[in-house]
Amino acid sequence: MKTKIVLLVAILSMSFALNAQVDRTKKPAPGPAPVVKFGKADKFTLKNGLTVIIVENHKLPRASARLTIDNKPYFEGKKAGVSGMMGSLMGRGTPSITKDNFNERVDFLGANIGFGSSSSFAASLSRYFDEVLGLMADGVKNSQFTQEEFDKEQKITLDGIKSNEKSVTSAARRVENLLTYGANHPYGEYISKESVNNITLADVETNYNRYYRPNNAYLIIQGDIKPKKIKKLVKNLFGDWKTREISEIEIQKPINVETTEINFINMDNAVQSEIAIINNIELKLGDKDYYAALLANRILGGSGTARLFKNLREDKGYTYGSYSSIRQSRYAASFRATASVRNMVTDSSVVEMMKEINTIRYKKITKSELKNAKAQYIGSFVINVQKPETVAGYALNRELYNLSDNYYETYLEKINAVTIDEVQNAAIKYFRGDKARIIITGKGIDVLKNLEKNSDYKINYFDKYGNPSEKPEMTLPIPDGMTATDVVNKYFEAIGGKEKAMAVKTTMMVSNATIQGTPLVMTTKASAPNKTLMTISVMGNTMQKVVFDGEKGYQEAQGRKTDMKPEDITEGKEANAIFNDLNYTSGKLTRIEPIDGKNTIVLKIGNEEVFYDMTSGLKVKSVKTVKTPDGKEVKVPTTYGDYKAVEGIMFPHSIEIKSGPMNLNFKIVEIKINEGVEDKDFE
Asked: In angstroms, what is the C-alpha Rg of the chain?
């Protein structure tokens, strides 16, 4: 079955000539800068302080509203997550309408209404917009919070935390934020099981009453509307929204490290390393060098044509993509360069990323790079500015950042005016390669040896919650006298005994999974010693079939049938269709490696490593090295769990396999032993 899943993962301009004669010895004269016409935005303020921005656009018979609560970020501490729960609970009933009736009415109108911790949104056909805006306003002003809905949301939140417990990406983002901004900063704290359990219904109500108020809010309405009518409607719907004094919040200023260092987060289940190079900056919209910073980032890592991408993906082949971003903010801006790379090239990737960061700081960019970066920004700006939501967003930015009335009218002019020297100065100022945190989340046993050998930076160690920790153990000694046969025998004892296993002549398994949101059903059949069949069905239609009859085989997908390669046939003959582990006694024990806090012993056989829990004896993981169509070797890990007995034999009912960005989690729903399999299945 495992081999077949690996196979599944693996399978899964015109130009026109100009007739006109062109003198190509002369450089064409530059064309005029594009003239951008901005839509008009009307603004007024209600007596309760709510600022309203209206953008009229009649291209489509639709209208939308977005409410933004402009609170400073605030530290939630032991009750981290309370604002998120509050936002999720809004709109679940008011004194005038129940939750069910609210949802039914929204569906009937074909509308979309949503609420968040600091925002709300509504959209519909313009003919229904008056009512839809009324429903949104009712939820904003009068949301009721019940214990029943609170208990549901608390459970959902806790389930989400539990499901992300082993997520390498989640751990990486959590610790990155904590280290970058500090544990007592609103951007640095994270939601935990403990903090969610600390939250009460009263806390949610207090948060709503304290922070969800009109005197610090902006309402943007855009689309097929009549401003005069909308003004009257808004006054009627939001005019009675009560104000409340917003307490002043002090935000701790994040600081950079004195000198660049590596912060390593060990995750035993990481199949690749998450790299983030981060430093804090002071940059906000409208700053004098804001435009130069944008262009510098665009050249460094802001697109698939930038330096980081070309180096790490196109040149070195270390990753699917490497990018950088520069986050402007009134409160805590930052620069960040990232890549997800194979474990074995983690150290090399850090070297190349730092090289690119330092190069753009100390060596001037080329004229063509600057020209192309400007063209990309100008093209994007001209396209987006035609959208009414963009005009509305720009109007909001003018308010939030106290920008001049003609800020966006002169935007392209300011982009075009940026010089090579200004780009370099911005890179020196904002891409602090000398004061950066290089945060790596990965598998220490695979990464640290080369990282320590090839790095000039101090390495600090943290657990997945950002707590300082000791350097992780790289390996443990194999007990004296232990052999591969001992490990395999213990495995068969754990699943029910070798005698019972040998009595299994055929198996039929049905499992479910999803790929890119599409549900699929996989059916596998096996007959000892080495006959196998796998079919993949989507919505009842067979999409793929792989068959091996013990001597030859083929795979069939989308109507195309392909015979197995000789090397696949050889592997199929040598394998055991039902219990591959019978062949592992000739393998070699290489190390003891911790996985999820439990020690596993690693057995290497051919191009595969198999991990057995040293306590239970069960197989928990395997990592097979396969070649991609372009000849590169990649590791495909498979994780086994949820063992359940079927006729006295323990089978894993959860099998998860990851290859590159693809992650398949199979849940086995049916297993039949010595029934449901015929010889004709393998024809």
From this structure: 30
